[in-house]
Hints:
mainly alpha; Recoverin, domain 1; 2 domains; two-stranded antiparallel sheet; 11 helices; repeat; metal ion binding; EF-hand-dom_pair
Amino acid sequence: MASHNPADLLEGLRQKCLSRGASGIKELGRTFRIIDDNNSKCLDLLEFTKGLHDQGLVVSREEAQQIFKLCDKDGNGTINFEEFLENLRPPMSRARVTVIDQAFKKLDRTGDGVVTVEDLRGIYNASHHPKFKSGEWTEEQVFLSFLDNFDSPTNKDGKVTEDEFINHYSGVSASIDSDEYFVAMIKNAWKL
């Protein structure tokens, strides 16, 4: 990891994890728990730096800080498990990204690059949801709950961007080895 570019350093860290077999969520979760010394479910800079060293990743203090800053998406001074996974899971193949893009475009009926409650009307049937059936929730609440699955954990605004949608499925992708299986699963789920 001779480069001082934070993105290159992060890619080097990802490759080191992959070379150790930490490709799926289970292995990355285990690595995260090992590094999380105080069991807070978040890594501070000290834990992260020590964890890099303990995992045999030799980087300078400055490089560790650069990687940490890049991983700390919400800027709160810690890296939670979601941020950790998002940064270290393997990139998706073109076939996976293409089918996810097709699913997003199907949902984004207005074509404005954001899926909202209005986009769901007419394509997602809320009447089958148990809480709608029982009268607990309105149709809009069912739609917002559905969108919440894809919405960014750090920006719950009831609107799903294509990046948020791809990020959601990138997490799913990390635990599926076969491109063919993943593509078939998405096509079946979204009736593509």
